[in-house]
């Protein structure tokens, strides 16, 4: 797991170095493809959520989150690796804590102590209800959010990994154990292999989706922290 994570970090550094070391005003094919993917992620995740001015402030860390999670997720479908770097809870937990710290930092930077008042005491609620509302707001805002970010990413990657393991292990069993012994039931391996391919395509989609969801939720939490009322 740690070797996969180190490999992905190294590849990301190499990718962004190669993509930005010789930028031209009129981009070539490689630079154009790189910029298209990068700019799409930046606009849809950051600028559409936070606006361009505020988005530039948090862009480095949000884009790092997105690309790191995306590439870590994709390792679960690469033959020879076949294990997502986010399929163990440590990395998702660290990223969720970074998102949580960003949320608090953004609120404190732009609103000061008023951030805590807005977070724990929503307007329009009778004062006597704050005894019940404030603890619930604290739990949902400061505890549940990082927990759900962590578990959503981890569980999706573990589930995908187990499905692929099940399908391709069954394929190996049917072809090389059952069919090799002369039992035609081994032909069931064709079906398990087909399901494995289908789940691989699904896993590619989920890998991209989970990276997008994690990054955009982190951006939304920042927006909620600096909003006047939420």
Automatic annotation (TrEMBL):
Membrane topology listed for this record: Multi-pass membrane protein
The keyword Membrane is assigned to this record: yes
Location(s) in or outside the cell: Cell membrane; Membrane
UniProt keyword Transit peptide, yes or no: no
Primary subcellular site in the record, as a coarse category: membrane
InterPro entries to which the protein is assigned, alphabetical: ATP_synth_F0_asu, ATP_synth_F0_asu_bact/mt, F0_ATP_A_sf
Transmembrane intervals: 61-81, 88-107, 127-144, 156-178
Keywords in alphabetical order: ATP synthesis, Cell membrane, CF(0), Hydrogen ion transport, Ion transport, Membrane, Transmembrane, Transmembrane helix, Transport
Family, similarity comment: Belongs to the ATPase A chain family.
Biological function: Key component of the proton channel; it plays a direct role in the translocation of protons across the membrane.
Name of the molecule in the record: ATP synthase subunit a
């Amino acid at each position: 797991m740690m070797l996969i994570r180190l490999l992905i970090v190294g590849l990301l550094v190499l990718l962004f170095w190669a993509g930005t070391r010789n930028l031209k005003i009129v981009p070539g094919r490689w630079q154009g493809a790189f910029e298209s993917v990068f700019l799409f992620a930046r606009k849809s995740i950051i600028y559409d959520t936070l606006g361009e001015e505020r988005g530039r402030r948090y862009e480095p860390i949000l884009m790092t989150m997105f690309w790191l999670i995306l590439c870590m997720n994709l390792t679960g479908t690469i033959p020879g690796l076949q294990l997502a770097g986010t399929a163990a809870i440590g990395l998702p937990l660290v990223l969720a804590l970074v998102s949580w710290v960003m949320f608090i930092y953004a609120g404190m930077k732009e609103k000061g102590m008023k951030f805590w008042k807005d977070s724990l005491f929503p307007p329009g609620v009778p004062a006597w209800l704050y005894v019940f509302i404030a603890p619930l707001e604290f739990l949902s805002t400061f505890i549940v959010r990082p927990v759900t970010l962590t578990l959503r990413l981890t569980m999706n990657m573990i589930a995908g990994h187990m499905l692929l393991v099940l399908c391709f292990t069954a394929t190996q069993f049917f072809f090389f154990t059952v069919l090799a012994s002369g039992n035609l039931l081994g032909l069931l391996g064709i079906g398990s292999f087909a399901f494995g391919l289908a789940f691989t395509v699904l896993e590619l989609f989920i890998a991209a989706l989970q990276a997008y969801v994690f990054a955009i939720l982190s951006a939304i939490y920042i927006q909620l922290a600096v909003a006047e009322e939420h």
